[in-house]
Specification:
The complex is a heterodimer of chains A (503) and B (496). Chain A is α/β, with parallel strands linked by helices. Chain A contains 18 helices and twelve strands. The chains are: A alpha/beta (503), B mainly alpha (496).
Chain lengths: 503, 496
Amino acid sequence: MKIAMITEGTYPHQFGGVSVWCDQIIRGMQGYDFQLVCLVGTGAEQAVWDLPENVSSLITIALWGSPPTGPRAGRRNGFPTRLLRRLIESLLDSSEEAQGRFGEVLRQLFDYAQRGNLSASLSGSKAVRLLSEAWQDRWQNAEQPLPTVNDAVTAMQLIEHCLRPLSHPPVQADVVHVTTNGLGVLPALTAKWQNGTPMIVSEHGIYLREQYLHGPKLPYRWPVKALYLGFLRRLCALGYREAETIAPCNIYNRRWEERLGADPSRIRTVYNGVDPANFPMADHEPEEPTISWAGRIDPIKDLETLLSSFAIVHQSMPEARLRLFGSPPKGREPYLERCKELVVELGIGEAVTFEGHIDKVREAYNAGSIVVLSSVSEGFPYSLIEAMTCGRTCVATDVGGCTEAVGDTGLVVPPGNPARLAEACLTLLQDDELRHRYAAAARARALEYFTIDGAISRFDEIYSFLAAGHPLPTVPPGADGDDQSDIAPRSESDNLLPFGVAG
Amino acid sequence: MSADTLPDLPPVAQPNADGDNQRQMTVVPAQSPRPGGIEELCEKFVTVCESAVHPLEIAGALEFDGWSDRAVRKRYGVSDVFALAEEMYRRVPRRPAEPAPQPDAWRISKWRPALHGVLYGLPTVCFTAAAGLLAGPNALTVMIVALLSSWALSQALAYLGYLRLGQGVPVQAQRVLLVGLGAGLAGVLAAMDIVSMLVLVYDQEFIFGVGLGSYMLGATVLLVLGSERLLCLALAPGVLGATVFLLLGRPSHLEHTTWVALAATPLLALGLAVARTSRGAGLRRRFTQARAKPTELLSAADVRAALPSAGFGLVAGGLLVFPVAVGTPGHAGVNTGALLASLPLALSMGAAEWMLVWFRRYTQRLLRTTCKLRAFATRARLLLAAALLQYLAATVLLTVAVVVVATASRLIDPQWTALPQIAAYMMLGCSMFVSLLLQGFGSRIFPLVTCAAALVLEILSRDFWVLGQIMVGTGLLIVLAGYAAFVLGSAERHSC
């Protein structure tokens, strides 16, 4: 069976969580023949992963660089003025009906792109004029910053770059697996429109949410940003609606997916998994009560909160230690410096060590009596499920899929709250019996739900159903997946530290 | 905390977003701004809210700040983060901040174009000195072949070098330039070989031709890599030798020395170009332990893309050389008057470079400040006219300066009869300026075709001497400027 896997800026050209996941899935599914379709920047990117043997081909689609050449847009191919106008209208109109029109327009643009030069049409003077006029019509008397000529040109160019995948021939496969929503669904949609190929949309972080978070860094004026992010929102919503199956890596993601119009009965959570062979049960705890943290040193991990909370822990337990494993990514070195300054300020320099990068991350988990994650944003963090597999009790912040990962085998606290984090750490460090009970439960939970074999068998099942043309067995609304609904946090259960309200 | 939570929120109308009009958006006055209320949250997230394009953008920011559905339910009594975000989107009107101004990519020092102009002009002195030294019957043919082949090859080489530099791989650019330098030299040698097979060529003429080619190619490499100082160094011996030789009235006992000085310039240019390119290229190779395949260095598509540049180099060279080659009525052979008249033109190319940058900077500003396409088109065309006029004014000034200096140093005896020749060169200079402008905006075929047609017309109308050149030059300028006015009125042409 042939699976087309679509990536955007990740596998096999970059390292990172999503790439690890792609590699695991492909290597784990030797019975399938994979075709990689990769959306890349200029096309000059080099693969940094050795491709598994069951990858039969690698197609790159460059979004930047020189545009795809095609027959010149001419009268013969029907210059798509009407189509351009409808595209622009569907993007500027925020009503729900416009979402439906957006889908239709995109499909017609695909039809056109297969015989005409879509790139030339989208960035040509006619498209710029249509957008500029549409803006002028809508902007009268508004206090908004008026869109300039440059805004119209920039916006149409951005749309042109985004839609380049429509000009490529659709991939031939039994199932198309998109590893993240967003531009990656475009090649999947073309295969679906032309050959009826079923598609799966997986999701780690929510694509649209990440785009919004990146929004303030975009170098564009508001009108361009609104049009561009509006396009991505429409596209993500279309991806969820057109996918036969949506396979997020945590239940938490459902909220955004359903918000954007995903049919809940099509959502099947497939948790990230680890290979238990790589994370054997840790044998003994460190002699001193130690808190371990592993990850990349990045503001998103909120180490300030972790350090502040440890200062509180240190007051009650002077023998406690905090060990931080990991290094800052390029450009984040000042953050590490800031953290080190904070350690000095808090007067905990004796008890805190920055260990730097570690080759075998399981040693980082083994080094702690407990493992802590203080992030302000997460998808479904590998570090938690790896630590759990090693049989370590975890304390995590209530972000992303952390609550689902930890379940009732550890403690979850609100993010950005040093007092609560310290309280949780002290509870566990002081109560050996509780900590050991949680540790055993954590390993059991990880082995039951978060193994790579588990993830692979669920994808195996989804692929088989979709390729055979069967819909997946329906699940009652509210439940997620057939056998995993029970691991979702049902309520503010007793296992979670009760949330108080600050202030 | 229930006292602090809002009562059930009134149903929030689906807010307009994504460029839709937000006119109806008004600030809902806080009934009683209580600490810890939504108002306070709006305050904290005011930048996000004011520039948000959709409530979901605020929801993302709230979640990133650590707010979960559970937390906002407890604190604000709203159903989830999305509902809270919608409420905040409704309360705070859009007042987006302008993005930080982008660095002005067209801000360059005035000195660089001026220096380029001098660097383009200086070799003319060498030509003038050398022209008298080349005595063979076919000296003119040799010079023309050498000039045209090296112009064509160096234009193509410059294109490829800038292409690689633009892709952000300076090491690749150096390697392409080094390989291209070798290939270009082979091309010039081949051209000279063919000439010497067809007509009688003296050794010194052959050497002169190859030297000319070496200089042009080496200078191209140095200019692409921004090593103007090295090029000055290379030019120094030839220009000094030629200047002294000309100022002293071409004394025959200095001929030999002048030849040596002239020969040093191409050798230096070549040597410095090789040194400048092989350093980076060699370093890279040592690191990667592998030589890139030639196809990785330069694809067939790259070479094809360089062809219009080569063609334009050939045609532009032809247009410049033609008046020199065709001579004056009754005086066949090298027209030294025309050769000197071409000096201001070479110098003016520095002014042309500056005006290209000037035009870019002003049109970029125009793009960012104009809201209507029609207004943009009109103003961009006015800027085009202004750029052309300023270039022309600079060229007139340079011509006057050259004539004054040359007269003062008794190199020429100015006569009014030279005016038509100067006028012809000015037309040609303006045409070259517009051609360069068009090429900068990605229009490479049109200038090539029109200039080629102009060259053919000049050759056909050679019996009209300088009058033919003026007429053809004027026609060429009108066609090119008209096309530029048409093309550069389109806003999307300016976005690069």
